Amino acid sequence: MTWANAVLQGIFLGGLYALFACGLSLMFGVMRIINLAHGDLAVLGAFVVWWAATSLGAPPALALIGALPLALALGYLLQVTVLTRSLRGGELTPLLTTFGLAIVIQNALLLIFSPDVRSLATVTGSLSTGSWRIGGVTVPYLGLLILIIATGVLGGLQLVLERTGFGREMRAAAQDPDTAALVGVPATAVYARATAIAVATATLAGTFLAIHSTIDPASGPTQLIFAFEAVVIGGLGSLRGTLIGGLVLGVAQTIGAQIDPQYSILAGHLVFLIVLLVRFSPGRLVPTT
């Protein structure tokens, strides 16, 4: 693999990381909580799509379209029934709550689907393996599709936050929920919508992961780490920065793999640590919304 090809494959991989990080960034930006169950919710959504595609025989795209409304409903109910109460308990309570939720999801998936690995690659045909060869670089169908969708989702949400009434309500609730309530913006409803969107984007990311590689009930924490690193690299709570952070993480991993395959994951972690040290050094901690 040439260096140019390594960078290009990293950009495609970064699109998947950015898609994973989208919901995590949105929830932090609006509610200032880190959802430790985010990766497991993504894997849960992927298993639903996998089950619909393999057991019911539904085309994967149709299975995903059917799963997204369920993910929106799950996210809304999760916020209304669990997270709203935990937010009243202080900063640590949502962390413990989402950690517990992650354990519940992992064990439920283990009980229902067994520890076996699953993949959607077998039912997506050439999408998972096909590519174009242009000059000295390879453009995979799936990588390009994920990058386009990630850019569209993150860019679309950024526009919604900046230019719509719904976005203004989210920004108001994020800045000061009590003052927002005084002008008729109920923070609870805004938070529920944000969580619904976050779980839906996680389902989308999980489905692409299942096409790109394999999933199992324990896949969630690994994806949470990559998503968290993308969010931190790009800037906490910034959707535009999350896209950039995902791309930087993906490129770092493929360049590390170009040097030596065993350095792939390590290179991504090193970039994350360097950004963490620079961003959170004394006098430079500036979370963005």
From TrEMBL:
This is Branched-chain amino acid ABC transporter permease. It is found in: Cell membrane. Belongs to the binding-protein-dependent transport system permease family. LivHM subfamily. It comes from the Bacteria. One of its GO terms (molecular function) is transmembrane transporter activity. The chain crosses the membrane at residues 6-26, 59-83, 95-114, 134-161, 190-212, 224-251, 263-281. Keywords: Amino-acid transport, Cell membrane, Membrane, Transmembrane, Transmembrane helix, Transport. The keyword Transmembrane helix applies. InterPro entries: ABC_transp_permease (IPR001851), BCAA_transport_permease (IPR052157). It comes from Actinoplanes lobatus. One of its GO terms (biological process) is amino acid transport. Pfam families: BPD_transp_2. It is a multi-pass membrane protein. One of its GO terms (cellular component) is plasma membrane. The keyword Isomerase does not apply.
